[in-house]
Fold each of these.
Amino acid sequence: MINTAVFISGRGSNFLALLKNIEKGVLKNCHIAVVFSNNPNAKGLEYAEKAGIKTIVIPSKNRSDRIEYDREIINALAEYNIDLICLAGYMRIITEELVEAYKNRIINIHPALLPAFPGLHAQKQALDYGVKVTGCTVHFVDGGMDTGPVILQKTVPVYDNDTEDTLSARILEQEHIAYSEALSLYAAGRLKVSGRKVEVLDK
Ligand code: GRF
């Protein structure tokens, strides 16, 4: 059983999808010990509270010292024995401090096929570029912006009449599937990272 901390900043639909899949038994050997948010008004916090999951909120507004902020997170997580941090719509850049404290133990979901369209507004970037296919990526987090080793990706088509909203919704559906799949593999000890490559080991 792995103990996870899910980091959110807003809506929290990826967190909710993980939670539902754990409850349904689809996502096995995985426990969400705590939900962390940098935003006290994050909607996802309500889902956590309803499910009886502990929450930690450290407001990041006006916190310009990122290292000091991440040290506070590390201290706050200490009592939970966290194996893995799952960034799920966590909108703050994390520092080396946190990356090193949880080396190869932080994963993120991004709404594009990395390395295309990193950073903010990935769906709009894809639309503006005119790609015909986009999707989502679950990846390990290193010190860069959406640059760590890729665990898995899901694709979706881009249609001529897509808006940012319609495309985002199509991608989000796949995100909810992809994150649980990636976490299942991690929890089963089936991910082997060598440099940039993540090998999925046989059962
Ligand atoms: C998702 O599109 C995720 O890929 C991105 O931020 C969004 C968060 O959505 N990093 P939610 O808060 O999980 O609903």
Amino acid sequence: MSNATTSDATTIDRYGVMGYPVSHSRSPLIHKLFALQTEQKLQYELLQVTPENLETAIRQFQRTGGKGLNITVPHKGAVTRLVDQVSERATTAGAVNTLAFQGGRIIGDNTDGIGLLRDLVVNLGLALEGANILILGAGGATRGIIGPLLEMQPSSLCIANRTVDKAEALVEKFSESGPVSASQFSVVPTTEAYDLIINATSAGLKGEAPPYPAAAISATTFCYDLSYGLKPTPFSVWARDNGAARSVMGWGMLVEQAAESFNIWRGVRPDTAPVLRQMSIAA
Ligand code: ATR
């Protein structure tokens, strides 16, 4: 009996999240709650790794028996060149947020897009088919969600960005997948009301409040911030102040993308609702 316990303790499967900075990450808590709920034995570490040390840190984690990693800001793009096999959705997103170490190989996937969809459609009950969608921002976060959103067959998907060239480049990349268009904040088309506005800029993280297009909000518009915090984000305050029907932060996406990663690693998908509640987050 005592031998079994010792062996369990030394062979416990290791996972973790690599980012820079990463100390604020809620992923260890979320995965701990998932492990408790599904009765899986694992440990999940917080790994602060600079961009220069990313490859070394990943290889070392793999060499020392690590089973999987979440990859977060700013490494999601850079890590794509370190994987042996990459999923189609990660290729489309140009970013990897989940690594699985299998038989000496590194498998890369991206669960952000599906995490967002699950939160919007399953948790929040939004109908995206036929919807008019506006995304603010044209960086990595936007690139990761356009493909999954277009699969839901919206009527329109407009990408508005401070630097319009970046929005136009994304439109060019995704134009064959659906009705995408590019715009600047100041001139977003408003002939039809937006059903959903998603903030995918990093402005709030930097404490900046850009001139988001208030004219895009109507009384039926649902606003969703990919960012989240214990206090309302600047975007969610802006959305409320400008009369949005509802304004929600990205806690649900965070928990849902984590559940998809957990499923990739452990072959079991946790129930996300109690975890969202246990984190004391109003979804
Ligand atoms: P991420 O990978 O998180 O998307 P990113 O690739 O650096 O990060 O992109 C950040 C996005 O936030 C960009 O769309 C950026 O706009 P620009 O392309 O014009 O730089 C947007 N962003 C960041 N700070 C902003 C601000 N103060 N006002 C408007 N947009 C901002």
